Amino acid sequence: MTTAILVSILMTLVAASTPILLAALGELVTEKAGVLNLGVEGMMLCGAVAGFAVAFSTGSTMLGLIAAMAAGVATAMVFAVLTLSLTANQVATGLALTIFGIGASSLIGAGFVGRTITRLGPVFPAALSEHPWLRAVFGHDIVVYLSLALVLGVSLFLRRTRPGLILRAVGENDASAHAIGYPVIAIRYGAIAFGGALAGLGGAYFSLALTPMWADGLTAGRGWIALALVVFAAWKPGRLLLGAYLFGAVMTLELQAKAAGVTWLAPELLAMTPYLATIAVLTMMSLGRKTGRQHAPACLGKNFSAS
Amino acid sequence: MTSIITRRRFNFGAGATAATLPLIGGASAQAPLGVGFIYVGPVGDHGWTWTHDQGRLALEKEFGAKIKTSFIEKVAEGPDAARAIRQLAQAGNQIIFTTSFGFMNPTIQVAKQFPKLKFEHATGYQRADNVATYNARFYEGRAVIGTIAGHMSKSGQAGYIASFPIPEVVMGINAFTLAARKVNPNFKTKVIWASTWYDPAKEADAAKALIDQGADMITQHTDSAAALQAAEQRGVFAFGQASDMSSFAPKAHLTAIVDDWSGYYIKRVREVMDGSWKTGDVWGGIKDGMVKIAPYNAAVTPAARAAADEVLKGIVAGTLHPFTGELKDQKGEVRLKAGETASDAILSKMDWYVEGVQA
Amino acid sequence: MLEWRRRREPSTLMLWLSPLIAIGLTMLLGMIVFTAMGYNGFHAVESIFVTPFLEPQRWPDLGVKAAPLVMIALGLAIGFRANVWNIGAEGQYIMGAIAGTGVALVTHEMTGWWILPAMALAGVLGGMAWAAVPAFLRVRLQVSEILTSLMLTYVAVQALYYLVRGPWKDPDGFNFPQTRMFGADQTLPAMMEGSLVHLGIPAALLIALVAWLLMEKTTAGYAVKVVGLAPAAARHGGFSADRVTWATLLASGGLAGLAGLFEAAGPFGQLTPQFPTGYGFTAIIVAFLGRLNPLGIVFGGIVLAATYVGGEIAQTTVRLPQAATGMFQALLLFVLLATDVLVKYRISWRVRVA
């Protein structure tokens, strides 16, 4: 393989991984606060359509990205109000949110089918971003660098800052956190909003960068992969980055192998591996728990009410 | 609103049996003719379903108030389809088009319950007295774009993003490759099976992988325009699928195979109106206007343009068949003898690849 | 101002009244939203929610659509009562269909009354096997069954794709990815000649009745509820939470598997890649719509089935896009989940005296 192909594979891999990484990172923070939001796919679609609609109408991709995050937050707030303020079941509400997102995005997007916009371009000047091999590092768009910065930021926030510690405490033991005087509900609102913003951004990465267009169901199920990824990464941002890129690598290399004439790979068997791997990771984590390390937030999916 | 009320009254009385159905035909001679459509995707898919809906809109334009069209979209292929078709039948539609292969069994099943109504199933092979089938000879379009690819490819390699190895897709790959190899005997077509009809991001990534592996012509048998966008980004050429997709890739889009169902729909609805509708199997091609070739991009070289026009003319005149012997499959077995052309029976069961295909 | 006070005990009145309040509220909201979108809101909601019930010819459709939903939801609800969150019923449904289809394909040249029962048994076992994995992982290794059961759903989908595109592809099917059609002895008989109503519909009703008796009238049902409500008390009372986890997961997996088999051997008559239509996920909604009560679930299944059937009617009567029906379903669920608060809280209006 020549350098050109290697660089190209790397670029494709990063691009394919970025939206999943973003959505998963948002969900990771939500789950760290003890909330399981299964509506990632719905939030991504709302972000994708809002991003495209605004970018198309204003001509500004940046405004599109911002609108996508706002749409993601708005969708996530429906979930937050129901589960936090009205103590509705999280699993059922999350599933309903996905149904809602698929429907709403399709209705909003009806007028934008077949329209085109300018693709989100690289950040750095052409000398770097179009250089034969330096572009592997400097050839990406703003969202890619942002996603990497966010992984670092979330990691530091959760491990090194006081608010991060409180957020984790809320996810591990909401009753104690409440007893100490932390506003459990408010913190969870924040975590769900963050999850919505990143899911919206991840969705907009499809409609603004990967495939700059709108069509129904544009994200094609990536939200569910993001959910699996959070578990696969054992709720650790660093591992999430690794997992997302690993997943992107498998997807990209599968296509490269097929293009190179490898036909013995059964696509179905390959497609189940991420999920089987996730179950394997969960099992191994539990086996390793005897060493005293807990990974899944203890209150994940359980409702909290103050009284 | 009156139409809704009358329809409901009819529904109350009629039950599921077909015995009372002729009543509406007679009672409402002045009422518009109901034309129903069942779509597998959303109207907004900008692919397969979208082209059929364009056909429906053409019907409305042609007949105006004389017909009333309705459709049910995003119908799952299976029992849900039978229910949706029955719903259109009971709602008083006289002719119902079911526009995906997976609607075959449900269409036949419902048609039995409504012998007076006409049904048209796209891309299937089961017929009845009141069920006709129709399909387009997309492979004729593939032969035209294959000719252009043969002329314009520098690497002599095309990338083909395909969905599933059903005869429809296989014959497209073969027709494309055969046409390209007429121009360049060493031409190769690399196929990626995407195992999906619709996943834009995956289609784009497949196009990139094919370009990485040396393809400089991209074509596809999946639904979205994503592969064209990837070709545009990488500076190679590509062909549109199902509709003119030049707006997505102004530089890369050399031409497109355009599905145009409007002519067929108008003809069949008119036949229902004047009572001459008969079952049958229509497999329309370029000659019938069911398959069209979008305007060429300015980048198409004069030689490629002339050769493509020649193929178009030959197909319309009937002097050129994309599958003409001698044809060997990849094992070297002779599938068509010299001078022989592929019958429709051979085409509709095609499960072998011609030389030059890497699938 | 509004005052919220947690009830000491959930209100029984509200438990039954709140779904009705939710449905009324959803109809009202739906009319407003659809009208704002430029459709005839009244007729849209009427088509979705009223017409399917008024037209007798739609009733078989409702039954066909509701039966698998009810059957799956019954199993899930028992688990939910015990705080066992099996959200992978879709995978168990697929696995049941796969196992039953395996029997159908092996026996496709045979005849005999025993074939269908054998297929049904295979379906139940297939679903149970798929649910046994999360059960084992939760009981032995404390792995969350929410995540494992969800992951296994995708594995089941891919397994289905692999089979119908590969080894099980119909040899006479022009390479289309689907199995051959089942024979007469591999297909569920219709309850009446020419009717859509198949054996799965009375079966679902019967199972609902059994589930209700089990939950309300037996110690086992009591154990499930105690484990769910007060795990500590259950331990003192001698109820094994592990055994309840195993039992509820196997029961829900088996029922989902049976529903899958009924769907494959009934309305489908074969296995195709389009077989998974999300019943396993929709059933979660049905379980909550029925307030986790077996008899409520029958009601919930019929209501949700009506929105599907009615959604198609609305597409033809008022040209309401399919996506709007999806939004309407989500709205129904949102409102229903929101009104659940009425069961848990007493809300009163109090004028504050300054």
Describe this structure in words.
The complex is a heterotrimer of chains A (307), B (359) and C (354). Chain A has 307 residues and is mostly helical. Chain A has one domain (3-291): ABC transporter involved in vitamin B12 uptake, BtuC (Orthogonal Bundle). Chain A is built from 13 helices and no strands. Chain A has helices spanning 3-32, 40-58, 61-85, 90-109, 126-129, 135-138, 142-160, 162-172, 174-180, 184-210, 222-232, 237-259, 267-287. In chain A, helix 1 (3-32) packs across helix 7, helix 2 packs across helix 10 and helix 2 (40-58) crosses helix 11 (222-232). The radius of gyration of chain A is 20 Å and the shape is globular. Chain A starts with a helix and ends in a 20-residue tail after the last helix. In chain B, the strands form three sheets. Chain B has a seven-stranded mixed beta sheet with strand order 12-10-9-8-6-7-15, sandwiched between helices. A six-stranded parallel beta sheet of chain B has the order 2-1-3-4-5-11, with helices on both faces. A two-stranded antiparallel ribbon of chain B has the order 13-14. Chain B is globular, with a radius of gyration of 22 Å. With 359 residues, chain B is of the alpha/beta class. Chain B is 40% helix and 19% strand. In chain B, strand 6, helix 7 and strand 7 form a beta-alpha-beta unit. The longest helix of chain B is centred in the middle third of the chain and has 17 residues, at 167-183. Chain C is mostly helical. Chain C has a two-stranded antiparallel ribbon with strand order 1-2. Chains in contact: A-B, A-C, B-C. Chain B binds chain C through residues 1, 4, 7-8, 11-12, 14-16, 36, 42-43, 70-80, 82-84, 86-88, 90-91, 101-102, 105, 113, 125, 164-167, 170, 195, 348-349, 351, and chain C through 43, 51, 54-57, 60-61, 64-65, 161, 165, 174-177, 181, 194, 263, 267-269, 272, 274-275, 277, 308-309, 312-313, 315-317, 319, 321-323.
